[in-house]
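quick one
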Amino acid sequence: MSQIVRSKIELKSVIEVIKHANKSIGLVPTMGALHNGHLSLVQMSKMQYNVTVVTIFVNPTQFNNESDLAKYPRTEERDITLLSNAGSDVIFIPSVDEIYNLKPTLSLEFGHLETIMEGKHRPGHFNGVGLIVMKLFGLVEPTGAFFGQKDLQQYKVISSLVNDFELPISLHLAPIIRESNGLAMSSRNKRLDKKEFEKASFIYATLSKSAKSLKGGESPQVIMENVEKLFSKESLLNLEYFEIVDFETLQNISTVNEGDRLALCVAATVAETRLIDNIIIEL
Ligand code: AMP
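structure w/ adenosine monophosphate:
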């Protein structure tokens, strides 16, 4: 059975005991409504660290859309059962007031990451992500922390925090876990009806096809145009962006060379639900 903690003060004392016993801590931050993607991070953490702390917190400061926050799925009881079965040691589930008892004075800005893809389409989002992750790092003092490749740009933002503040935390990037139709698992998938769920498989299918074309020598420009055309024929889907970027910097590339490591990144809405996905390839 996992230990459930709801207050910062209790968490601090739990962490103190763990640290006193010289045990390493793996942190898995989540917003709940858990699926196998989240549980894969827990499994990875358990393999590498003595104690695994999972946090469940729907962080209001990272939502730039009120209705997205209001509609965000919440399944606390089920999450606790899943995490206990997965062997999480501690589950931290604070309230909004508990986390933001003092309004943050700091705001974080991540340079060029703010001007592309998620940064560009969700202004203020990474400030919220940065604030909550720094709070969780401060509270949990993890040895390592686990993040999913699905949110690749978020991982880069958190890498900036670790590098810029010299945080003594190892970051781990976990592969994307998918539904059987290829759709990347996401808490937001719970909002899709059956037809939307089926249609959403188009996102990964298009990514895979584009990755294959890129490997086959097609130019990034042509691939991007094709993707736009393909999406424009799909009435339920709306393409927000499709980018072919350098894996390290997430900067757009116009020409490719053998050995390049690239990421193909997409954001699209399926009816009312916004989804993101990506593929990493090496040429
Ligand atoms: P979230 O609850 O959506 O904030 O996600 C919590 C963590 O799980 C983040 O690091 C995500 O990148 C990761 N994650 C979300 N979906 C998946 C997935 N399908 N496969 C692997 N990790 C995921």
